[in-house]
Amino acid sequence: MPGRFDPVNLIEDQSADRVPELVPIRYARMSESPFRCYRGAPGVMAADLAATPVSGPRVQLCGDAHMLNSRLPASPERHLLFDINDFDETLPGPWEWDVKRLATSLVIAGRENGYTDRERARVVRAAVRCHREQMRRFAGMRDLDVWYARQDVDPLRAVGSGALRARGRRQVAAALAKARTRGSLQAKAAGASVLAAHVGAGGHATDGERVVAGQRLMQAASDIFLGWQRTQGLDGRERDFYVRQLRDWKGVAEPSLMVPPGKGKFGELCGATLARAQPRPGDRIALAAHLGRGAVLDWAVTRFAESYADQNERDHRALLDAAGTGRVRTARAA
Prior knowledge:
Strand order of the largest sheet: 5-7-6
Number of helices: 14
Oligomer: single chain
Number of strands: 7
Largest sheet: 3 strands, antiparallel
Distance between the termini: 38 Å
């Protein structure tokens, strides 16, 4: 689009605080496909969304609510849940940003699976409709009931039972079983959110605290080891970290194995989960009233998602061109 920023410049700016040896590996992964590029560049979309009109209430944003950031974490009581899982970019901001990022990820993944235009539209509309209807349901609930609402894994089992390819059904069953065997600790660096330049940095003393606070607000049941600290890194610089369990029963879906009905059901789960997370710290009644009862929003977000998927393909091509000319360096992991 005329006057738009250079996406490769923005990606490079956001790599400045990363471990230098890992940056070429990141670029190599982002170069693999438009979906990989999309997952690796939430700051590009944040910059684009910042130039669009804001239509309503602010909520706590995940900041990177693509479809694969809804996974299978465990509650402290050892129940396997379906929930948002990545909060590196979390900050308060316009409610529609997370919805648009989720919707666009469904379109991009659908294109890579060879879905038709109509099939992709059905998937996205299902996700947005479920988000809108769940928000209206939460608007009629008591505060504590909303706070304790959670999504268990039964609907995911239903997705696996009849809406995936045979290999996909086996993969869902294996993911659920494997998730229960995984558990180990991690200290992860917490940098500034890609949203901060557009919505403000928030009121937290450190970025580690920002990540932890956002996760506790949005997740139905947070990791009992979740915490933050500021400490000196190997390079002598002070850095913010947050601590979490790395594989605490976590499982993840594989979009390439989903046929359109399965992707639609998965999109509904993601939309419902986002609807549960958004009103916990926000005004769910105002947001539900803003979303309305009709399907106007569903169609509008679907059109946006298709358009932005086109933009993402152009950004992926720009990254490939930059790698081809040596402007950015790519390297495979050993």
